[in-house]
Automatic annotation (TrEMBL):
Keywords: Cell membrane, Membrane, Transmembrane, Transmembrane helix. This is LptF/LptG family permease. It comes from the Bacteria. Pfam families: LptF_LptG. PANTHER family: SLR0882 PROTEIN-RELATED, YJGP_YJGQ FAMILY PERMEASE. InterPro entries: LptG/LptF_permease. It comes from Ramlibacter alkalitolerans. The chain crosses the membrane at residues 12-34, 40-58, 65-85, 105-123, 309-326, 338-357. Its main location: membrane. It is a multi-pass membrane protein. It is found in: Cell membrane.
Length: 393
């Protein structure tokens, strides 16, 4: 079989597909991440974590939600492109020139293969690393509170040679008025006073820093020299408590890459690693099945079957996602082998998609879903006269 390069019609089909795909991915990311973002800002408000740390945590969540958004957006984009071609009678023109449904779907299958390659990187490496980084930053945010108990008008020793005192301390123990700090290192002594101070997380997430406003710093050297510095705003971080280190990556199977999961499976036959490995691999290979489902349902839009097609595709993707998750849980608990538990719903979805696609090859818009909807409508129409006859006196 001679493989021809993409022609003008293929490029046109991809242009119809590109904008819905970008809009779908952006919409799905915003919709799915909004609730988590609100939760992150709530944690930041309660712990006093710095805004850059919160934004970094939100960025670490993008790979996870991108893995959920891509299949839905990819399916919706193909559906909308096929519906557009049907509504404008462009599909009829393509078919009249001898172009088959399979040939029309070719550029979408090529993109699906490329998306599967990207998914292998997304699910195999990017997601587990981002998940671990998210937990590290979340631990830093939760450890932001200063362990030292600060009482008003009481000197406390934060570290060796470093004392701190505040005239007024707010209820959260993070904002101060009338700050006095003294630090001695050998013969060098440094005294800092400030009208206001606030304790917050360091920008790099390591330890704490104290923001001071309207202050004076006096430093005495071992030679007896005294220097005085006035400042409107400044930061002090030395000798403040640092966060305890987070655990090493890999304690959970979800934090390991595909290569690490494969090594664990070969070395220890761990059920959790096998379940995670097969689940990620199955999710990576979903895109080639999506054109088989979305294109026939989109072509049915010309006959007024658009809404049932959207509902059917949404339900099918939802069931596939939950089935893969359920199969992974069965494999982790040891009730089923990982390969059977994960790949069974994948194969069922593949057979369903292939059946729908083959059913539409004879005539565009005619597929098992549209025929089922037409059959239900016929039954309802036949039932109406019977219902009227029963109601009539």
């Amino acid at each position: 079989m001679h493989l021809r390069p993409f022609d003008r019609l293929d490029r046109y089909a991809l242009r119809l597909f590109a904008i819905p795909l970008i809009a779908g991915v952006a919409t799905m990311l915003v919709a799915t991440m909004l609730g988590r973002l609100l939760r992150l800002f709530d944690i930041a408000a309660s712990t006093g974590a710095a805004l850059p740390l919160v934004l970094l945590m939100a960025a670490e969540l993008v790979p996870h939600y991108l893995g959920l958004a891509l299949p839905v957006a990819f399916t919706a984009a193909i559906f909308m492109a096929a519906a557009r071609m049907c509504d404008d009678s462009e599909l009829d023109v393509m078919l009249s020139t001898g172009r088959s449904i399979a040939r029309i779907a070719a550029p979408y299958f090529v993109l699906a293969v490329l998306l599967s390659v990207f998914n292998l990187y997304l699910f195999g490496r990017l997601q587990p690393l981002a998940r671990y980084d998210y937990h590290v930053r979340m631990d830093q945010a939760l450890q932001t509170n200063w362990d030292a108990r600060i009482e008003e008008n009481r000197f406390i020793d934060i570290a060796h040679g470093f004392s701190f005192r505040a005239d007024t301390v707010d209820e959260g123990g993070r904002s101060f008025r009338g700050v006095f700090m003294s630090r001695r290192d050998g013969a060098v002594e440094e005294i800092t006073t400030a009208e206001r101070g606030r304790l917050e997380a360091a920008l790099n997430g390591q330890g704490m820093r104290l923001q001071l406003e309207q202050g004076v710093r006096m430093r005495t050297t071992d030679a007896g020299e005294v220097t005085t510095t006035r400042f409107d705003s400044g930061y002090f971080q030395e000798a403040l408590p640092a966060n305890s280190p987070f655990r090493d990556r890999g304690a959970a199977a979800s934090e390991r890459t595909l290569a690490e999961l494969w090594q664990t499976m070969c070395r220890t036959c761990e059920q959790g690693a096998a379940a995670e490995f097969h689940s990620r691999l199955a999710r990576s290979l979903i895109p080639p099945l999506l054109p088989l489902l979305a294109l026939p349902l989109g072509m049915a839009a010309k006959r007024g079957r658009r809404t049932p097609g959207v509902i059917f595709a949404s339900v099918a993707l939802l069931l596939l996602n939950h089935s893969l998750q359920f199969g992974k849980s069965l494999a982790e608990s040891g009730r089923m082998p990982a390969a059977a538990a994960v790949w069974t719903p994948y194969l069922l979805f593949a057979l369903l998609s292939l059946w729908i696609f083959r059913g539409s090859l004879a005539w565009p818009g005619d597929n098992p879903v549209s025929r089922a909807v037409a059959g239900v409508e016929t039954l309802l129409e036949r039932a109406r006269p019977l219902r009227r006859a029963r109601v009539a006196p």
